[in-house]
Design goal:
Elements lengths: L58 E5 L5 E5 L13 H9 L3 E6 L9 E6 L2 E14 L4 E10 L1 E11 L4 E10 L4 E10 L4 E8 L4 E10 L5 E10 L1 E2 L3 E2 L1 E10 L5 E10 L5 E10 L6 E11 L5 E10 L4 E11 L3 H8 L5 H20 L2 H15 L1
Parallel strand pairs: 3-5, 4-6, 5-7, 6-8, 7-9, 8-10, 9-11, 10-12, 11-15, 12-16, 15-17, 16-18, 17-19, 18-20
Antiparallel strand pairs: 1-4, 2-3, 13-14
Helix pairs in contact: 2-3, 3-4
Length: about 375
């Protein structure tokens, strides 16, 4: 695909992600001139980044597999590794009254997915949330964070995968059109641990998700996938869907793969993808690759795609990135139309194929069907 409808650029990243604190006062109020906030329309955040009161109206319910433990508690464990890296995350950390914790016991294998259902209580009042997903050594599970309803919501998700653990997390943002969400997912992988993380962002007025991965033992394998579809809305203007990833390779012999795809149409529809990968001097034997593809379906839609790769050691297995924004391929459309398929249906078939590759990787039939149906609804 050719570079159309947005910007593609690269820049060093080591100066980012340096500050971490649980105290919101340690972070200045963003102005929009900061690198980490320059794409986000701050005026649409409803005060999440300033001083809007964060209440507890959002409802969280857990439908756990029988092998999985879960609980709610009023404070984080003293050994929590989570450290917010911006003001919104720190405010959510300080304000969250109940911590939802899902635990995969040692050597347990979940027989079915566990659902964490988050339901907004309305967009009029801002709320905060915090979720912990803890996979103990050699545990295996699928956890789905299913988010629906209207909300103004700031939340943190802490993901810990211990040695030999295997976890798949699907974060489904199926919000109503008026929702604003700023979310941070912080994942820590132990020795030979595996994480597959899917960010499926289809609803909301403004959704900004920031997944971070760090390794605490060799052999860790992180696979980060993303699907988003932004359009115009008569109620809120164009959707703003933003994903900011940071993979911090600071441990030898670890692997990461990042694959995000987006589509957007309509005046004011805007997607942002920031992919930061840092390979530190001690992270020899790293194998990393990231890419982002965006389909810009109409005039007036805009995609920003910024892959950042900083390599501070020459002893790597592989490291690279790719990014492209473009229109539907005319040759694909012509091929289908030459076989009697009308243009509108040909466009739908190409877009289904574009997303189908990633949807099929989820491996949970009811989720795959639901996501495919949502994409069909976007195309209708």
């Amino acid at each position: 695909m050719s570079a159309l409808g947005g910007a593609v650029e690269t820049a060093p990243v080591s100066s980012l992600h340096a500050l971490g604190s649980r105290d919101p006062a340690d972070f200045a109020v963003p102005t929009g001139r900061e690198e980490e906030w320059r794409f986000t329309p701050l005026r649409r955040l409803r005060g999440l980044h300033t001083d809007a009161p964060l209440l507890s109206g959002t409802k969280v319910a857990v439908d756990a597999a029988p092998e999985i433990d879960y609980s709610e508690r009023s404070r984080l464990a003293a050994d929590s590794t989570f450290l917010p890296t911006d003001r919104v995350s720190a405010r959510a950390f300080a304000a969250a009254e109940l911590i939802t914790t899902v635990t995969v016991p040692k050597e347990a294998t979940a027989s079915r997915p566990t659902y964490i259902r988050v339901t907004g209580a309305g967009a009029g009042a801002a709320s905060a949330g915090h979720t912990v997903i803890d996979v103990q050594p050699f545990g295996r599970a699928v956890v789905v964070i299913d988010q629906q309803g209207s909300a103004t919501y700031a939340d943190n998700v802490e993901i810990n995968v211990a040695d030999g653990g295997d976890l798949m997390v699907v974060s489904l943002a199926d919000w109503a059109d008026d929702t604003v969400q700023v979310s941070h997912h912080h994942a820590t992988l132990g020795r030979d641990a595996r994480l597959r993380h899917f960010a499926v962002t289809l609803g909301g007025s403004l959704v900004r998700l920031s997944p971070t991965v760090r390794y605490v033992g060799p052999g860790g394998d992180a696979q980060l996938y993303g699907i988003c579809f932004a359009d115009a809305s008569a109620k809120t203007g164009g959707q703003h869907l933003e994903h900011r990833l940071f993979v911090d390779h600071d441990t030898p012999n670890c692997r990461s793969r990042v694959r995000y795809k987006g589509a957007l149409r309509g005046e004011g529809a805007h997607t942002v993808w920031i992919g930061d990968v840092l390979i530190r001097p001690q992270a020899t034997g790293t194998d990393s690759y990231e890419y982002n593809r965006n389909l810009v379906l109409t005039d007036g839609a805009h995609a920003d795609s910024v892959p950042n790769l900083e390599i501070l050691t020459g002893e790597v297995v592989g490291a690279g990135h790719a990014s492209a924004n473009g229109r539907l391929d005319d040759e694909h459309l012509f091929y289908l139309m030459a076989r009697g398929i009308p243009l509108d249906e040909a466009r739908r078939l190409v877009i289904r194929g574009f997303f189908g590759e990633l949807v099929a990787l989820i491996g949970v039939p009811e989720l795959e069907e639901r996501i495919a149906a949502k994409i069909e609804a976007e195309l209708a």
